[in-house]
Amino acid sequence: MLARLLRWIGLVGALGVAGWVGWCFRQGFGLGATLGPVLALLGLNALALALEQAMAAAVHGQDPAPRPSVAARCRAWARELWSSTLAFGWAMPFASQRWPDTPTGAGTGGRGVLLVHGYLCNRGFWNPWYPRLQALGVPVVSVSLEPVFCSIEDYADQIDAALVQLQRATGQAPLVVCHSMGGLAVRAWRRSRLLRGEDAAATDARVHHVLTIGTPHRGTWLARFGRRPNAIQMRRDSPWLQGLAASESAAWRARFICVWSACDNVTFPPRCATLDGAAPIHQPGRAHQDLLDDPAVFTLVLALRESGST
């Protein structure tokens, strides 16, 4: 669904640019007048990311995280521009099925890894990680959370099916790695199992650890601009988030590791990416999607996969 939507947006944009350029040449416009609006259109992503960084800086307020310098935010913006352009311009619209799931891994296999993407994304978001994990023989499965615009708890069955697949293939509880909204979807998955009458301890044991990356556990200031159900749920201290927190135990929270950054341009203020009772890990100077490009985060995934039980 999302891949098709992104392809249509790209097609409409390309036709619009081609039509504009053709019309300008027929009218005899100069090169500057012709390419100026085109470059402005192509720069919309850069402008949006810069605006997000500006908003994050403006609402940092009394957040206990160190306030990033302007230079740090500019570097984070540049890396985010590159990574988001690749993800939304190629990987998610055209290559979301480029890397198949390998639930049994290769060689010794071992514990599997479930990858859960965030808002307005699909499994193509994880394309940079797939070949690296598969080269190491790691069993890996990812989901495409759809419909794109719905309540977050509606993704619970997709996550449950992926957990079952990895558990059956490896005989071990998977490590779950989530980006952004994906971390909330996994928390909502647990609540859905409890509402169905499952035992809390048994449900908790179905995951080894949950590593969240830039997840708005306490909501995010940016979500105030969203109008769809899952965006509304991610508003700061929303009733949905409060209900989710009330359903959780200390033992469940202890399975979480929360990677966050003071330069995050989507989940802010920074403390919003942390969870009471979970281990926080600060990766300074990284923007929202750019956190996945941090080598330390990938190394942490491998370490957690090999670690003992909680």
Automatic annotation (TrEMBL):
Residues that span the membrane, as ranges: 5-23, 29-51
Keywords: Membrane, Transmembrane, Transmembrane helix
One Pfam family linked to the record: Abhydrolase_6
InterPro entries: AB_hydrolase_1 (IPR000073), AB_hydrolase_fold (IPR029058)
Superkingdom, natural source: Bacteria
Secretion signal, residue range per the UniProt entry: none
Coiled-coil intervals: none
Residue ranges annotated for the AB hydrolase-1 domain, each copy included: 113-263
PANTHER family membership: SLL1969 PROTEIN
Name under which the protein is recorded: AB hydrolase-1 domain-containing protein
